[in-house]
Specification:
- With 656 residues, the chain is mostly helical.
- It has a domain of 241 residues: Helix Hairpins, CATH 1.10.287.
- It contains 12 helices and 2 strands; from the N terminus they run αααβαβαααααααα.
- It has a two-stranded antiparallel ribbon.
- Helix 1 runs antiparallel to helix 2, helix 6 runs parallel beside helix 11 and helix 10 runs antiparallel to helix 11.
């Protein structure tokens, strides 16, 4: 009886232990679900934070690429417009240069023809003046001894001597009708009466008496004709000088315009080449920005879809966990009710009444195979105890081990996928930033070189302008000295001519009143000498005026050239200074781009280095592996010890 009571007591105790173990398992399951839920929530929040940062950062990249694309397209349009303008300028300047060259060629040919006509007319007038001077001198010598024996013969001989020359003079264009009539009257000849006269030319000279009353008139007429010829010569030379000056000014204007147009043509060609280069670079930049924009837009869309899917999956898992927790709590509530416990105690539901199938040997065999395959001490120990352990704790330990290994494998797989994704993304980011840094650095070096060259050009042009101003000042000083010399020479010539003219007039007036008897050969020679001196001084004055005109023209030409060159240099200097200012701003912007891109690249490289540390598999040392293995063995031994201690009190409940 005592044995029966003891058996019943032991049975009731076993019944209570079985229920408690079920409740404990349910509690553990509930706690595990809650704990996994908390871990999942934490992981979800971290993933959502990654989504937020990634979407925000990629959005900024899309925005930057869009702005870069718009800027490149604007630069393309601007370079197209400037290039078209430069091309039109090249066409216009080429046509203008050709037209100016044709105009200069036509003007040069016309000037050469006019100069040829001038030289011919000038020589004719110079010869006429010389003829008239000589004729007047001959007549004066012939009439110097009027009333003396042989005067008529000398006069006839003189008239005969100058007749041929005066015939030529009479054909000159400047001779008016009245002067020509007078010359014709002087040159009238009578037919010859004898053979000697016929031999002399078919005509006889008028008698000396016929000319004595007119001798003074002959000299005056010749002097008037000489003065008129000299006046015509002066006017002719003045007209030639004016025409030459006008041609030189025209030629200078066309040559200056041509030089300016050629420089402008060169500038336009340079501008066209620069704009074509800018257009090519901006086109390439636009293509790169568009590619970057599309890539980031695609990545942004994928990330948004991935994050949205993660939200949906998280909500579904959250709902499943909540339902599972509710179900477990309900089961625990039912199993812990007093009515349920009483019914179970009375009916002995949890006592094994049937012989359980012996699967321990099968489980032990499987664990042995696993231990042999994986060379695992843990599996070997489980296999040893599984053959003798009648409790489900062995199953729980196995399940826990499987769950832990599966979780570890999943975590490693997720970590590897994360590492691969982050490495791929940041390597592409590093390459893009390196490319941009190289491009910005090249652009910065080129801009600095262009700035240095421009500054060198500016210094050179400034030095040339200073030198040109100094040369112009020296030329102006020389020109003023030449002008002063000419004014003094002209004043002297005019004074001398005035004095000679007055002296000749006084002598002529005296001898005309005193009569022919008062004249002498010496007086005649003096008058002739004065007239020759007058002619020489007039020639000196004319040559001085011509030289002054040429010097003034040369100075004006030089001055115009210097003014045009100075204006061109000032315009070029202003343009280059403006370009230096523009390049300064560009260099500042590109320098900022280089610094910011370098900072981004450094950050990317630092992040890749961190990824390398966290994502690169590390080989465990022997000491580390041994320590880890010992910890696992100790954990399993502790579990086996618990099971072995419980076996002594519960083994008799097993029925075979």
């Amino acid at each position: 009886m005592l044995r029966v009571i003891a058996a019943l007591a032991v049975g009731a105790s076993a019944q209570a232990n079985a229920i408690n173990k079920i409740v404990e398992q349910l509690e553990d399951m509930k706690a595990t679900v809650i704990r996994e839920g908390e871990t999942t929530v934490k992981e979800f929040e971290e993933h959502q934070e990654w989504c937020r940062r990634t979407i925000q950062g990629t959005g900024y990249k899309v925005k930057d690429a869009t702005e870069g694309l718009e800027a490149a397209q604007a630069l393309m349009a601007d370079s197209d417009a400037k290039g078209a303008e430069a091309q039109q300028s090249i066409t216009d300047l080429a046509g203008k240069i050709a037209k100016d060259a044709a105009d200069l060629d036509a003007a040069t040919k016309l000037r050469e023809k006019e100069n040829g006509d001038f030289q011919k007319s000038e020589q004719e007038l110079v010869d006429t003046v010389d003829t008239l001077v000589r004729a007047a001198s001959i007549v004066r010598k012939a009439t110097g001894g009027a009333g003396s024996a042989g005067a008529s013969a000398r006069l006839n001989a003189a008239l005969t001597q100058i007749a041929g020359s005066l015939e030529v003079v009479m054909q000159a264009a400047f001779i008016n009708a009245d002067s020509k009539k007078k010359l014709q009257a002087l040159l009238q000849q009578e037919p010859a009466d004898d053979d000697d006269d016929a031999a002399a030319g078919g005509y006889v000279q008028p008698t000396a008496a016929a000319y004595e009353s007119k001798s003074g008139g002959i000299v005056d007429l010749l002097a008037d004709l000489k003065q008129e010829a000299e006046g015509q010569l002066g006017e002719l030379r003045k007209s030639e000088a004016n025409a030459q000056h006008a041609f030189n000014m025209l030629r200078q204007s066309l040559e200056d315009a041509g030089a300016t147009d050629k420089r402008s043509l060169g500038d336009s060609k340079t501008l066209l080449a620069e704009q074509q280069e800018v257009n090519a670079k901006s086109t390439e930049e636009a293509q790169n920005q568009e590619k970057t924009k599309k890539e980031n837009e695609g990545y942004l869309a994928d990330t948004q879809n991935e994050c949205q899917t993660a939200v949906q999956e998280h909500e579904a898992e959250k709902a499943d966990r909540e339902n599972e927790v509710v179900a477990l709590a309900k089961a625990i509530e039912i199993l812990t009710q007093s009515s349920f416990k009483g019914a179970v105690d009375r009916r002995g539901v949890f006592l094994q009444t049937k012989q359980a199938p012996d699967v321990r040997s099968e489980v032990a065999e499987l664990l042995k195979k696993a231990a042999s395959k994986f060379a695992s001490v843990e599996f070997a120990q489980l296999a040893v105890h599984a053959a003798d352990d009648p409790f489900a704790k062995v199953k729980d330990l196995i399940k826990d081990m499987v769950s832990r290994l599966q979780k570890q494998a999943a975590e490693e797989a997720d970590h590897k996928a994360y590492c691969d994704s982050e490495r791929k993304k940041n390597v592409a980011k590093r390459d893009d930033q390196s490319s941009k840094l190289d491009k910005y650095s090249t652009r910065l070096d080129k801009s600095r070189a262009e700035e240095a060259q421009l500054k060198q050009d500016i210094a050179k042009i400034s030095d040339e302008m200073v030198e040109a101003d100094a040369n112009m000042a020296a030329a102006t000083k020389l020109r003023n000295e030449q002008a002063s010399t000419f004014v003094a020479l002209k004043t002297d010539c005019e004074t001398g001519l005035s004095g000679i003219s007055q002296a000749i007039a006084v002598l002529k007036d005296y001898y005309s009143q005193a009569g022919e008897n008062a004249k002498s050969d010496s007086a005649t020679n003096v008058v002739a000498f004065l007239e020759t001196a007058e002619s020489d001084m007039l020639k000196m004055k004319t040559e001085a005026e011509t030289q002054e005109s040429e010097q003034a023209e040369a100075f004006d030409k030089m001055k115009n050239e210097q003014e045009v060159l100075k204006a061109s240099n000032e315009a070029t200097l202003k343009g280059k200074q403006g370009e230096v200012t523009r390049l300064g701003g560009l260099i500042s912007d590109v320098k900022n781009d280089v610094e910011s891109t370098q900072a981004e690249l450094d950050a990317t490289l630092e992040y890749l280095e961190k990824l390398k540390d966290s994502c690169t598999a590390k080989v465990m040392s022997f000491e580390e592996r041994a320590a880890k293995m010992q910890q696992e063995i100790e954990s399993l031994q502790q579990a086996l010890e618990i099971l072995e201690n419980e076996t002594a009190g519960e083994s008799f409940l097993q029925r075979k």
